[in-house]
């Protein structure tokens, strides 16, 4: 196996591993639009990284974390409906990021790589950083699993039971921001939410417990990464979109299986 393909496979598997359980919570809590907003804001992180001359991966992660905190604060004030607020921020941050990158960047950068991913160009350093963040996020999810399930089922009841609902919800948003930051290299700004949502939606039909759904979502995501990279290698197709199409194909297969049952 070529070195670049092995690195891409390792990076994709790491993202799929942690995107599975996070995607499950995104499906349960109807947070797909929240993920879209964070993903679109990631391009602003690229802008700040270029302007401040700092590591782009670090800048993207910091930008996503900052916007997640801003969204938490704005949702708490509730001066606008959540979906309206997310719609405004999602498209505004994407447009602002595109304009800033094109205007303020002295060196030409490949915008398509940020919009649709460039997993085949990941370096050994990228793979190490992706795995470190993935392991940290996975450990945090395991630690917060029961409180997260409790607030997903019923926030008021969880608060009565002594769970710090706001802190747990904020932690979930920050973890999602970190995963979106590392997934940007794999599938790009415009396709990140698909990698979160589609495997989780597919696993919903194949599982009976929340834990099963999270694990199966990770496995389906990994399968999609392998299939997408294989399609990219043999048919010379863009890897990020190929991975997303693989998740869609898997989801369609689960629909057929459901109909046969």
TrEMBL record:
One Pfam short name: ABC-3
Domain of life: Bacteria
Record keywords: Cell membrane, Ion transport, Membrane, Transmembrane, Transmembrane helix, Transport, Zinc, Zinc transport
Subcellular location: Cell membrane
Keyword Zinc: yes
Transmembrane segments: 48-73, 85-105, 125-145, 182-202, 214-233
SUPFAM superfamilies: ABC transporter involved in vitamin B12 uptake, BtuC (SSF81345)
Membrane topology value: Multi-pass membrane protein
PANTHER family assigned to the protein according to its UniProt record, in alphabetical order: ABC-TRANSPORTER METAL-BINDING PROTEIN, HIGH-AFFINITY ZINC UPTAKE SYSTEM MEMBRANE PROTEIN ZNUB
NCBIfam families noted in UniProt: PRK09543.1
Role of this protein: Involved in the high-affinity zinc uptake transport system.
Record family assignment: Belongs to the ABC-3 integral membrane protein family.
Protein name (Swiss-Prot/TrEMBL): High-affinity zinc uptake system membrane protein ZnuB
Record organism: Cellvibrio fontiphilus
Lineage, highest ranks first: Bacteria, Pseudomonadati, Pseudomonadota, Gammaproteobacteria, Cellvibrionales
Name of the coding gene: znuB
């Amino acid at each position: 196996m070529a070195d670049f393909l092995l690195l891409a496979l390792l990076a994709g598997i790491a993202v799929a591993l942690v995107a599975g359980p996070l995607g499950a919570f995104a499906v349960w809590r109807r947070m797909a639009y929240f993920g879209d907003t964070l993903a679109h804001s990631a391009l602003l992180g690229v802008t700040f990284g270029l302007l401040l001359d700092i590591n782009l991966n670090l800048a993207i992660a910091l930008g996503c974390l900052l916007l997640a905190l801003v969204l938490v604060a704005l949702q708490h004030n509730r001066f606008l409906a959540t979906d309206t607020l997310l719609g405004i921020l999602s498209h505004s941050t994407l447009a602002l990021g595109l304009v800033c990158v094109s205007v303020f960047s002295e060196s030409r950068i490949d915008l398509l790589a940020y919009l649709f991913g460039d997993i085949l160009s990941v370096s050994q350093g990228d793979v190490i950083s992706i795995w470190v963040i993935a392991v940290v996020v996975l450990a945090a999810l395991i630690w917060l699993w029961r409180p997260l399930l409790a607030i997903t089922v019923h926030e008021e009841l969880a608060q009565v039971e002594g769970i710090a609902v706001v802190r747990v919800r904020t932690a979930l948003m920050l973890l999602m921001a970190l995963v979106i930051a590392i997934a940007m290299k794999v599938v790009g700004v415009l396709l990140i939410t698909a990698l979160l949502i589609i495997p989780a939606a597919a696993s919903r039909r194949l599982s009976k417990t929340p834990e099963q759904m999270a694990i199966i979502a990770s496995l389906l995501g990994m399968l999609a990464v392998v299939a997408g990279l294989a399609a990219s290698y043999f048919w010379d197709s863009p890897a990020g979109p190929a991975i997303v199409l693989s998740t869609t194909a898997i989801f369609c297969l689960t629909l057929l299986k459901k109909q046969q049952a």
